[in-house]
């Protein structure tokens, strides 16, 4: 009996585990047997591996071959094990030196012609291999740039099985055509619109709307959710799309975390492996619940819009047009900062810590002036009440916008601050926040849990007069108070106060209470 071993990674959501792939050749009926809980896709691997080996000009061992993936209890999905199975099998047949591949982690799908095809999720898989002490990975050539983002990992890229075998045998590489089949699009074709980070957008484009601009600045500085209500054409979409221009670039560890999610989703742009700017996701209002929070039953579980917007912005334009179920599905990720999808094979986890921005017209007919509105009063009320109380209760900053006046539209240009000026203030405020939160797991005021907030970050009592009064009137709930306090800290950080004063708390209270019917 001859034995050989390689390794691969089993990926569930964005979490990966290194899997040992062992091949044994024994006497018995010729055939390839895969053991270790393979799903359908993995059984298909048998046929792909056989064809790929044959079409790479290798002798297929016409013997009894057993390939075992262990630990057997680990869920194994998808086609990412093809390469590790093929190499383990050939090493067991002594077609490649077993010691050359025993410690390699091989990730990749094989085409029937022996080409190594790109897969989704290479970055989180390689991150997992690195965390578990592996030093060398073999990945599809089209995914190499992504794998190279992982510090300290030696990355070998393979375009064909034949090329990889030459490398393992220390032979000169074959001549390969440089055909690039590029990254694959998400399997389920979710209706998502990714706004490219556009250097053309600038806050200075918006005239007037001082309060809304200020709210954007507070949101960017503290990570607070935001709701713009107002008549069509008053600039809601325009304002929301400029929020990313106020946010600092992602920290290196966060950039990897964000990129890992997009790697699984297959939404990384070729030639730009690392996402460094906060993502901006604006799903269409026809988006399904699954496209919002993730799911699917295909080969790979797809992250939803809430995860694609992780560490960035999820913008729901015309929010009342979304299905109620889709909106309700937002509550869990808003509360917990991640999505968990349970399937028979196990539980997938996708981070989902985003800033939610909602925009809404006052009624479905979207008349620019209330006088032109053709909706019955009941319809108007019903329209806005589609945004449920529990959802709006999670929004710290709520504004009712009026159209900018003609004078503002004409003359405000020279006074309007640019994104760069505001982004610098945001950066300073964030630094102040981080200094205060040193030694905690939180990076922004919006992330501080309620009990901690009340224990460690209570403003002085003379600053709390307006909030106390609102509590007494019943206009503010205990949960609402937490939200007001977090915003008050962000306003203090933006103003340079060591702690919120009465104006900061009052300002936060106004922003919390506005837009409530
Ligand atoms: N305050 C403003 N400053 C500059 N342009 C504005 C302003 N408000 C509206 N506009 C113009 O009106 C258009 C419509 O704005 P938009 O953001 O789509 O409105 P809404 O989303 O509220 O319906 C914008 O593309 C812009 O040209
Ligand atoms: Mg709009
Ligand atoms: Zn109307």
UniProtKB/TrEMBL annotation:
Domain spans labelled AAA+ ATPase: 222-405
Protein's name according to its UniProt entry: ATP-binding protein
Pfam families, per the entry: ChlI (PF13541), Mg_chelatase (PF01078), Mg_chelatase_C (PF13335)
Source organism (scientific name): Actinomadura spongiicola
GO molecular function, one term: ATP binding
Lineage: Bacteria, Bacillati, Actinomycetota, Actinomycetes, Streptosporangiales
InterPro entries: AAA+_ATPase (IPR003593), CHLI-like (IPR045006), Mg_chelat-rel (IPR004482), Mg_chelat-rel_C (IPR025158), Mg_chelatse_chII-like_cat_dom (IPR000523), P-loop_NTPase (IPR027417), Ribosomal_Su5_D2-typ_SF (IPR020568), Ribsml_uS5_D2-typ_fold_subgr (IPR014721)
Keyword Electron transport: no
Residue ranges, annotated region (Disordered): 170-192
Family of the protein in this entry: Belongs to the Mg-chelatase subunits D/I family. ComM subfamily.
Record keywords, A-Z: ATP-binding, Nucleotide-binding
Keyword Aminoacyl-tRNA synthetase applies: no
């Amino acid at each position: 009996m001859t034995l050989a071993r390689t390794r691969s990674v089993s990926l569930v959501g964005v979490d990966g585990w290194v899997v040992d792939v062992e091949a044994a050749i024994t006497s018995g009926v010729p055939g390839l047997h895969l053991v270790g809980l393979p799903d359908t896709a993995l059984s298909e691997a048998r046929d792909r591996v056989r064809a790929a080996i044959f079409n790479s000009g290798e002798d297929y061992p016409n013997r009894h071959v057993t390939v075992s993936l262990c630990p057997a209890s680990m869920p194994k999905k998808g086609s990412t094990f093809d390469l590790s199975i093929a190499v383990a099998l050939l090493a067991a047949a002594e077609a490649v030196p077993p010691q050359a591949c025993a410690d390699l982690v091989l990730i990749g799908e094989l085409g029937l012609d022996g080409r190594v095809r790109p897969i989704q999720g290479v970055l989180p898989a390689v991150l997992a291999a690195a965390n578990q002490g592996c030093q060398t990975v073999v990945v599809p050539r089209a995914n190499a740039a992504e794998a190279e983002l992982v510090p300290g990992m030696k990355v070998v890229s393979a375009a064909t099985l034949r090329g990889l075998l030459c490398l393992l045998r220390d032979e000169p590489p074959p001549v390969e055509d440089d055909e690039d089949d590029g990254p694959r699009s998400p399997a389920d074709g979710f209706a998502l619109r990714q706004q490219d980070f556009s250097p053309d957008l600038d806050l200075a484009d918006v005239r007037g709307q001082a309060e809304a601009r200020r709210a954007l600045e507070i949101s960017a500085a503290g990570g607070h959710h935001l709701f713009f209500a107002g008549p069509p054409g008053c600039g809601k979409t325009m304002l929301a799309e400029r929020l990313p221009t106020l946010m600092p670039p992602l920290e290196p560890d966060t950039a990897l975390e964000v990129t890992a999610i997009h790697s699984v989703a297959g939404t990384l742009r070729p030639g730009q492996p690392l996402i460094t700017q906060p993502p901006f996701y604006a799903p269409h209002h026809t988006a399904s619940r699954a496209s919002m929070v993730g799911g699917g039953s295909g080969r790979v579980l797809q992250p939803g819009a809430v995860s694609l917007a992780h560490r960035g912005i999820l913008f729901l334009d015309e929010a009342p047009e979304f299905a109620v179920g889709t909106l309700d599905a937002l509550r869990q990720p808003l509360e917990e900062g991640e999505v968990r999808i349970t399937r028979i094979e196990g539980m997938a986890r996708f981070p989902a810590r985003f800033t939610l921005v909602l925009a809404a017209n006052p009624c479905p007919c979207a008349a620019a002036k209330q006088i032109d509105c053709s909706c019955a009063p009941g319809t108007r009320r019903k329209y806005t009440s589609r945004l449920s109380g529990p959802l709006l209760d999670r929004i710290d900053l709520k504004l009712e916008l009026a159209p900018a006046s003609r004078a503002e539209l004409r003359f405000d240009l020279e006074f309007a601050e640019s994104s760069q000026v505001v982004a610098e203030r945001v950066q300073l405020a964030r630094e102040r926040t981080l200094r205060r939160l040193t030694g905690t797991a939180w990076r922004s005021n919006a992330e501080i849990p309620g009990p901690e907030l009340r224990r460690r970050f209570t403003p002085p009592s003379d600053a709390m007069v307006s909030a106390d009064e609102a509590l007494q009137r019943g206009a503010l709930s205990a949960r609402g108070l937490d939200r007001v306090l977090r915003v008050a800290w962000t306003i203090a950080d933006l103003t340079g106060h060591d702690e919120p004063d009465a104006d900061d708390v009052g300002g936060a209270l106004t922003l919390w209470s506005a837009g409530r019917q």
